[in-house]
């Protein structure tokens, strides 16, 4: 099943949770924080401006993005994947290699 977000919404697959700290301590599942980065799965056509024009989104499918801890409070499960749906403005930046 595919999802097509509307307007300036972005669908993100959250990265895997970190199970060990930098010092090598293994964290149980309940203590691990949810990661604040993920990969863009789908992007809407863009935000509609007051003039009626559509402003194209700045991210594209496949981008690795960084977002806030409480961004994308809307989660959906599609084909067993848990996906976040957020507005483009909730994304802080794109991670580049």
UniProtKB/TrEMBL annotation:
Record Pfam families: Cpn10 (PF00166)
Entry-linked InterPro entries: Chaperonin_GroES, Chaperonin_GroES_sf, Chaprnonin_Cpn10_CS, GroES-like_sf
Principal cellular location given in the protein's record: cytoplasm
GO cellular component, one term: cytoplasm
NCBIfam families registered for this protein in UniProt: PRK00364.1-2 (NF001527), PRK00364.2-2 (NF001531), PRK00364.2-4 (NF001533)
Protein function: Together with the chaperonin GroEL, plays an essential role in assisting protein folding. The GroEL-GroES system forms a nano-cage that allows encapsulation of the non-native substrate proteins and provides a physical environment optimized to promote and accelerate protein folding. GroES binds to the apical surface of the GroEL ring, thereby capping the opening of the GroEL channel.
Name of this protein: Co-chaperonin GroES
Species, as recorded: Marinobacterium lacunae
Phylogenetic placement of the source organism: Bacteria, Pseudomonadati, Pseudomonadota, Gammaproteobacteria, Oceanospirillales
């Amino acid at each position: 099943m595919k999802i097509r977000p509307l307007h300036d919404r972005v669908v993100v697959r959250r990265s895997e949770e970190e199970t060990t700290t930098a010092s090598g301590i293994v964290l149980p599942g309940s203590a691990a924080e949810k990661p604040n980065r993920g990969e863009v799965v789908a992007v809407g056509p863009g935000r509609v401006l007051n003039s009626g024009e559509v402003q194209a989104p700045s991210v594209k499918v496949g981008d690795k993005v960084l977002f806030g801890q409480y961004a994308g409070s809307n989660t959906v499960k599609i084909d067993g994947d848990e996906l976040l749906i957020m507005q483009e403005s909730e994304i802080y930046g794109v991670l580049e290699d």
